[in-house]
Specification:
There is one protein chain. By secondary structure, this protein is an all-alpha fold. The chain has 2 domains: 1-46; 51-127, DNA polymerase, domain 1 (Orthogonal Bundle), CATH 1.10.150. 46% of the residues lie in helices and 0% in strands. It contains 4 helices and no strands. It has helices at residues 11-32, 51-63, 78-82, 109-127. Helix 2 (51-63) crosses helix 4 (109-127). The radius of gyration is 19 Å and the shape is elongated.
Amino acid sequence: MLTIDLRNTDESLLQDAERQLAAFLDRLAAQEQVAIATRSLARFAPVSFPTEMVSLIETTARELAFSCRRLPSGAGHDAQMMARLCPATMIFVPSVGGLSHNVREYTEPAHLEAGTAVLLHSVLRLAE
């Protein structure tokens, strides 16, 4: 068994990758004279967060003297689901060695505190 995780922030590029994968598997099955069965475990369309929400997080981080940059995320997060219902965005904090979504992931307490501060101050601004 093999799991393949295709991600992209652009729906058309994601669909193209899915087509290319299916074509490759068809060629491989024919070449090796084997049967290949596939099933989709999950498939969610990419979402774009509202500019005003992303800007709020960025502005708040800078005002709190934290460095920041905009990053795309291809992972399925709660915010991806909530964005279909209400304005949403995400705050990322660095993990040691860039390792994330892994049991060995570790984030320094100072970075967790920084992310929490950005979240708190952003929510307070939204509540005004």
